[in-house]
Amino acid sequence: MRNRGIIWDVDGTLVDTGELHFDAWEKLAAEIGMPFTRADFAATFGRRNPEILRYLFGDRFNDAEIAEIGERKEGYYREEAKRGVSLLPGVQTLLDAFRERGIAQAIGSSAPRGNLELILDLTRSRDYFTAVVAMEDTQRGKPDPQVFLTAAAKLGVEPSQCVVFEDAVAGVQAAKAGGMKCVAVRFAGHHGEDALRDAGADRVVGSLEEIMAAEVLKLLDQ
Catalytic site residues? Predict the structure, then answer.
């Protein structure tokens, strides 16, 4: 077993692709004649497509239709993302610092694997991650801890020795439910500081430029 691990959420944490996702959901909703608001986006951000679609549309669609609709939405998202996506402030410094310390890192995301592969390629960050856990690797979405527990298992690190980077309330809740420490970042602005603290975040920062790798790892000693 490795001693310690870092698990990264992607959307809103590693990169800010929120507006790309909102535009894709808005386009999809218009196609199927259903409304989609900023409030809907905030309420579902950080969750898997099956849970989002059931939240938005109830039992209107069966499982096969939900899979097709979700993939259609992700197709719209990926087309826009290909125009360019950059790592958020402070991310590169932390990725390098953890690697220099020999700390294993993983992706733990509700996004489909195709989205994650695209983001890792666009940001040239793939080599930092020992494991990538995507929507397809889980049966339960955040706030269930399955995605982070799966990532910890792939890293070979006990959950109690992992720190999760998140930006969504559901993600913070998932990290804490898995027995992990959590640093929440507000840069993308989907959830406020109070909401993230109430969800259990051990540290809330406006940007990842505000925290150093040594401070993150110190959380594991608390």
Answer: 9, 11
